Amino acid sequence: MDDLRENEAEDEEDDMKEPTLGNPQNTIEVLQKYNFIFQKKYGQNFLIDTHVLDKIVRAAQIEPDDCVLEIGPGIGTMTQYLSRAAKKVIAVEIDRALIPILEDTLGGYDNVKIINEDVLKTDIARLAEEENGGEPLKVVANLPYYITTPIIMGLFESGVPLRSITVMVQKEVADRMQTGPGSKDYGALSLAVQYYAKPYIVANVPPNCFMPRPKVGSAVIRLERYQKPPVRTEDERLMFRLIRASFNQRRKTLANGLKNSPELDFTKEEIESAIGQLGREPGVRGEALTLEEFANLTNILYNINK
Asked: Is the N-terminal amide bond of 262 cis, ω within 30° of 0?
């Protein structure tokens, strides 16, 4: 009899941990219960497709001892899925109106910490130290399109301990992160992301998987953080200045883009000589160079001033 009661208690605990969100009907019920109004300024589009949610969690490769940082949990839909897979989930939500909803929908999940902050102003390194003993986090998010790049680059550039970032972003942005030289989508974002991580598009997601529906398609992309960059550069900051200058005016040649940049202080002769040392023609455009070539160009120009 005692064994039967224990089994029933375990079943009840499992039911509490079973995700209750992820489909349109349940999402609508929660939103109506709290009279929630979507805020355009926060770019809120909530996922309402359980298959996509499963794909995201699988792609993030969440292990039982992982600590996950979720950015923009919304009403807690993906948080419920993450909580079942991870040791701990830190959910950072900027919209104060969503906090009571999250406290409700995540009430049965004791391994979730909700933080009402702007992630761009949050000390994530401190969170990693306090919540995960300084060990690397895995980031999972359905990101607002308007601040996708600042969030991702902020995570990489800040030196926060990360294993991977698995995020839902605008499809066009996912394509830019993954593409290589010669593509119209190739640019500064492509090179920056590929310097820090190996990008892999997991799935394309149509607008009807969200509430409200966005006007554009989305994609889930996984960025697996490199332990060390795939190229060697003498001056990382100089390399990114060169990359920005190369793509600020895409129609200009690489030499003219670098020469006209207020961030750089090299003569036309120095720039053309450095491009020649790469084995490239003087009229080459920045979009033709690989990440390795930008690193080599950086090293050549860096040594000019030594």
From this structure: no
